[in-house]
Amino acid sequence: xxxxxxxxxxxxxxxxxxxPSVRGFAETMSVxxxxxxxxxxxxxxxxxxxxxxxxxxYVTGSIIPPMSVSExxxxxxxxxxxxxxxxxxxxxxxxxxxxGCGWLPTDWMPNAAxxxxxxxxxxxxxxxxxxxxxxxxxxxLRRLLxxxxxEEGIDASAxxxxxxxxxxxxxxxxxxxxxxxxxxxxxxDPGYFNFQALLRAHRVKxxxxxxxxxxxxxxxxxxxxxxxKPRLYITNSALHNPTGASISHQTAYRLLSAAGAxxxxxxxxxxxxxxxxxxxxxLAVLDGLDRVIRIGSFSKxxxxxxxxxxxxxxxxxxxGLIDLQxxxxxxxxxxxxxxxxxxxxxxxxxxxxMADLRxxxxxxxxxxxxxxxxxGITPWIMPRGGFYLWCRLPDGLDxxxxxxxxxxxxxxxxxxxxxxVSQSAAPFMRFNVAQSDDKRVEEAxxxxxxxxxx
Amino acid sequence: xxxxxxxxxxxxxxxxxxxPSVRGFAETMSVxxxxxxxxxxxxxxxxxxxxxxxxxxYVTGSIIPPMSVSExxxxxxxxxxxxxxxxxxxxxxxxxxxxGCGWLPTDWMPNAAxxxxxxxxxxxxxxxxxxxxxxxxxxxLRRLLxxxxxEEGIDASAxxxxxxxxxxxxxxxxxxxxxxxxxxxxxxDPGYFNFQALLRAHRVKxxxxxxxxxxxxxxxxxxxxxxxKPRLYITNSALHNPTGASISHQTAYRLLSAAGAxxxxxxxxxxxxxxxxxxxxxLAVLDGLDRVIRIGSFSKxxxxxxxxxxxxxxxxxxxGLIDLQxxxxxxxxxxxxxxxxxxxxxxxxxxxxMADLRxxxxxxxxxxxxxxxxxGITPWIMPRGGFYLWCRLPDGLDxxxxxxxxxxxxxxxxxxxxxxVSQSAAPFMRFNVAQSDDKRVEEAxxxxxxxxxx
Lengths: 454, 454
What we know:
By secondary structure, chain A is an alpha/beta fold. Chain A is built from 18 helices and 14 strands.
């Protein structure tokens, strides 16, 4: 029943379409024909499908039900559903503790610089306050980004950059531009859960590539290229979410060579760049923005309330992406937002802020690791930077069970399988070290671990 | 060749797919088989397709080319392409005159209130400045909107409202939620050009409904429901773009009855509401947010730089839309943007500002109509409010030709066919009365009309 419902929800079959034959579907699902007959009868009783004499079962209804992204893809326990973890984190009340969330506490952000930028904006010219921006977005901010690219070794021009509403919107635009329903996309396993949610909304097939401490497993990557002919691979090269690992030079080179041989486009999401103590290898740098598309945003380091992302790519692709962004958002990101971001980035205090933040995170990482060690929770690796610790729970415990128990105590966690396409990360949990260094987190975890182990 | 290329660009056919047979395609296109043979041979010479002995022509290439939204749908002269007019208006330099654009001059906007709101924001709590917002967006702004809905006669609750990144993003989310590639959508003809661009990005079929001074032609609407079984209808009920007309009570009732009989969902884009001197009929009010989805934004009256839109709909649909917005934008609109908008809307000066604006627009409308009359350009109707005048050019002139000539003089116009799915509005032009009341616009138009008539 679930399989048929999922087909309808994902629009694989629609009103008036004939369902698979009982015998055929029984074979596909490896169940007995009588099981299929029973499922069809129940769905018919619910009015979802109807029988036509001598010709099988058909989907009823005059319209296709609305898309339910949470029903596309494998049916999962809500506790390890990517939407669940996002909504829990975003809508948690202020009294909740959020060691599972993907951002820094508000008092770790450059609030003073933002306030200064707001006051300065209040004195700016009228046009900036009320007009739509240009289609590519603020030239000032694009030039600041190009300066940073040049420091990395990427030689790009202002017409290779498009500012977007957010980093997520940047990836969404790229998916719209390059993907077709039914295409295959590679993601890291484990990998950022919202990539899965986003890609489900594009109705594509996901294939997970096991992630190693040196980046994606290149042998698995090469095998997937041959077996699945994917159109796109989405990854974080530096301070990967959730593991905090960064790709090695050798992995970057092999990965890019394989991508070239199979005409694969790679999206490199670089939002954690500023958290690195020193630069690690980047695919966009090796490739020079040919088949690698760089995206990024300022939500993690500057503000998640003043949102803006960017896409750096081939010039001809940027042209197509501009048309798509005009069609779907009318214009680029808010000029007020890009002016605030450019002001903070250009100000002298931002580099100092980031240096302090890296120091503070390094200490929080050590303290959190020590707290977790007491509970038998051990990091998979100690990352060079950033705010994630990807940890293994004590033997035999399922992180989804632990997360459910902690949620009852208003502690929002990020259980491993939410990051895993193959659902193979049940023993793992992602901790945000800036949100976990709290006695109450430790206590809630301790209780949950004990209850779950019972 | 164009037809095949469009099929490839729109992904109707992809790599490895067989092209239609020469004979079959000749019949479809109403051309001779030899014309098709020539087109296929040329495409084969370009490497786009290749012949396989005895089995026809196939699309080559290992990957499908990126989506080109400007190539989906009928191939058009760039001068009447919806993307062209958007990009011309958004990217015009400050010295250009823009009687064709869809927004007010910056000094007509509530700049003082925005500056005050920015200064107040600079003193607000840290969390507002740096954290992601809740998934539904600011409760304060939603409550303000609910208050306005109540004044109209719409009784809704806060969980029937979702704030979005912009009005366009609101419609885009709804399209993702309800539409499937290949569905049919009804739009007004003439109607807002970016609806066409947006819907093309969703790969749906567009059917235009002729627009009358009392709203869409109900007989044509009813016939289209039977002939095309559309999934959605998108319209402006009040101060329709581009005509400035508003639907009558009778049209609203007939339209909604027909929609009910055919299970059609209606999106009512209400962005011009505040420009009305007194309220005209609304589909969302008659229907009570059952099959009508209300969307709106503040870009036209408050700021296009501080963007935010909203969707008011059935509670269960809002839940699905939240998941989609999380997947594609991560969270709702910028809390900084929604705080600024709520501050200006709640402030005492906004109603005064709108009253002044309506007065000023009424005067500009009369003056622009008088200027245009001297050139033989006459309004289709005199709208009750808003900033558009939909005008007929002197006999025999094509507005696209006039627009191209004026663009050479840095005057950006909005030629009629950009608003017309059926391309039947060549004699018309949309003028923004707040951007047209200028001697230089009159002079450029006069020259262009004379040159075009020669």
